[in-house]
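[Automated response] Your request has been received and processed.

Submitted sequence:
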Amino acid sequence: MSEYLEFRTVQCRDCYRCLRECPVKSIHINDHHAQIIEDNCILCGHCTQVCPQGAKIEHSELPVVRELLKSGARIAASVAPSFISSLGLNDFSILRIALAKLGFSIAEETAVGAQAVVEEYKRLLTKGEMQNFITSACPAACRLIQMYYPKALQYLAPVDSPMVAHAKMLRKNDPSLKVVFIGPCIAKKREADEHGIDAVLTFSEMLSLFEERGINLQTINRLVVTERGGDGVNRAKAFPATQGIIRSFDVLPEGYRYMSVDGADRLAAVLDNIESLDHVFIEMNVCPGGCINGPCAILREGGMIKAEADIDAYVEREMASHKLTPAPDAGVNLDYAHPRLRARCHPVSEKEIEEVLHRTGKFTKEDELNCGACGYPSCREKACAVVNGYADIDICLPYMRKRAESLAVDIVHNSPEGVILVDHEMNIIDTNASAMNMLGLEGTPESVQGRPVAESFPPIDFYNAYTKRCRTENPCLRIAATGRYVSLTVSLLSEQNMLFGLMKDISDQVNYDKKLDRMKEDTIATTDELIMKQMRVAQEIASLLGETTAETKVALLNLKRMLADGKSDVHTDGRPSEWRTAKV
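Generated structure:
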């Protein structure tokens, strides 16, 4: 996490736009989320402007300023001259009153420091000792040179920035004075830390303080009479616009050609060739259009054109209403030798680069597309970032797409299920070997592309899926050409305007079910026959049993009758009565 930029990780969504736009590639893609490589970052703030999700925001120093205002200390506000375009004001006295209401003891335009810086430039240019002369009030541009273009460092004017110069001037008579810079720049936050400036606010943060205290700039504007007169013209109020430094000179020293360059890409092109130039004065800004288009500038209706026109009008009024007098002496030392800085990365060998390239399927120069989709200008630079741990290898979009397509093709063409893609005219777009086998098609999948699906089976399921815009399922479809049975599911791919058919061969299951049905029928028939047979046997047995039962019944009845008839001739001892009488 950067000390000066904050991230909302949940909103960072694998787009790599910040990496593509970063002029020094100080973005680390880790676990599909972007992170700032703080040691390599020049804090141009461009990533905060281009992030489509607003996942990157500048760190706020509002809490620091609130504490300073509560402390009772004397505080000075150094306000960047781009307040003219960001706030739509044409009179600094309005802002001075508002800042005093907040609790600032002093409020001045940073242009006071810029005027002193221009005087230093004039002194050095007059000497004519530097082959080329690079000036910039932009700490991002200075850091770009210090870190990435060491050969150009010798041409960077050894002078403090307007912000630092103004802070020194403010503290000249009161070293304990607290200084807060207010402007449109994120890079000023780090520069302030490096030079002992107490805090940096953006214009939006300053407005939020005004809102908290109920301070209305428009109300103040209606009560203020525009300032007239003064100690003299300060041309340096043109600093925030293109050629602002050049226009801040009353007379351009001879011996140099004067030009301005803005935009990180244009700066890089000039710095790459700086040694081929001779006696050129170059004013540099990382932000296109200068500070009026800074990452924290408040963009108003009319954009940069209107912003620059407002700056010009402000300076013209300054010129018309003030005396043309020499710039006052700053009274402080503004010398500053910009140190050489080094990006945090280690040299990468050719072997390491090739290993990364090979892992992403790049074995020849022709394989290196250098498309820039990953954010790096070339495949080799991306490979260097991978080796340094600043990028994941899978952010190569052509490689990942090719890999995904290859994987998808392999899955489709090697699937045991039949796959068939059909267009809205019911013609085959693609298929696989399994589907061809089920449909009885000969040749290769490529050879059947364009053929009507109706040649293989009735396309009613595909028609229904397309016209009803829904998925259809046919649990059992017989393929006439092969006699096979398949279950067919058809899905509509709306975005591609095509139909996706998935076929599963269920022939074995259907044949087994048919065989099982036949077995059931045979079993039922056999059972019926057995039942009938058993019934016949039972009936025959019953018939026989009926006859014998009747005979038995007759015999038993006769026996009963006989016994009943001969009952009187039998005594209790069981002897016949005739036998007993004869014995007597």
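Summary generated for your ticket: DSSP finds 21 helices and 16 strands in the chain. Residues 243 and 260 are 6 Å apart (CA to CA).
If you did not submit this request, please reply to this message.
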